[in-house]
Recover the amino acids of this structure.
């Protein structure tokens, strides 16, 4: 119930192509869906996030598509660049008693963009 | 200036030893976290503190003991280290933007290797 399933595990894309990473969840109590980007040897960093009342959010070359009825969301990276090569984590936020939040992360997708 | 810092960056130790990892954030956040990232990159929350109070305690062996002397610091002490404790440990802090929406800021990680 608290899981977030992410696919694919790894992805190879040519420079200029579109990278697509998919996530699915079961718990309808999740109320916020961020994506984090992690470069080798670094900590994850927030990339883009979406609320469940919005179907799409775009920031530059990065777009989240959200399908509430299907309980799925995805990250699209347009015009993928070698500098985008990193591990991407989808996450879902769950509020619990006391008004605090907990992030549940997907398993991660290792993206390699080849020149 | 580093927002979330951790020391040490690398930690190599023998099985059975006790070790500590320190974390400090200068963002003024009230909430801090410890995550464990295993060799497959899976990121799992271990503990969370809000204003020095423990709010999340996942199913973690009691050999792991977090301590928060003030809201800017969250340390992790590990007793009787085991081979399976080898992982990257990330500290994070968060700021709630609005209802359910928060950004977590991660430190650079501490790479623990137990021999």
């Amino acid at each position: 119930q608290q899981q977030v399933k992410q696919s694919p595990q790894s992805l190879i894309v040519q420079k200029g192509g579109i990278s697509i990473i998919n996530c699915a969840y079961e718990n309808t109590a999740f109320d916020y869906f961020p994506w984090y980007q992690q470069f080798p040897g670094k900590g994850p960093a927030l990339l883009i996030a979406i609320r469940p009342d919005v179907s799409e959010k775009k920031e530059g070359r990065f777009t989240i598509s959200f399908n509430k009825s299907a309980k799925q969301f995805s990250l699209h990276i347009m015009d993928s660049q070698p500098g985008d090569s990193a591990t991407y984590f989808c996450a879902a936020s769950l509020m619990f008693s006391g008004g605090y939040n907990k992030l549940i992360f997907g398993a991660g997708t290792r993206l390699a963009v080849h020149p | 200036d580093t927002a979330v810092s951790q020391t040490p960056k690398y930690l190599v130790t023998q099985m059975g030893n006790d070790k500590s990892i320190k974390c400090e954030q200068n963002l003024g956040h009230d909430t801090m976290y410890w995550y464990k990232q295993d060799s497959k990159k899976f990121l799992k929350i271990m503990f969370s503190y809000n204003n020095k109070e423990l709010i999340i305690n996942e199913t973690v062996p009691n050999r792991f003991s977090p301590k928060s002397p003030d809201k800017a610091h969250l340390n992790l002490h590990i007793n009787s280290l085991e081979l399976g404790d080898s992982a990257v440990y990330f500290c994070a802090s968060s700021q709630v933007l609005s209802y359910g929406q928060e950004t977590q800021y991660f430190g650079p990680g501490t790479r623990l290797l137990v021999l």
Observations:
- The interface with chain B takes residues 31-32, 34, 36, 38, 41-46, 49, 51, 87, 89, 93, 95, 98, 100-103, 105, 107-108, 110 of chain A (CB under 8 Å).
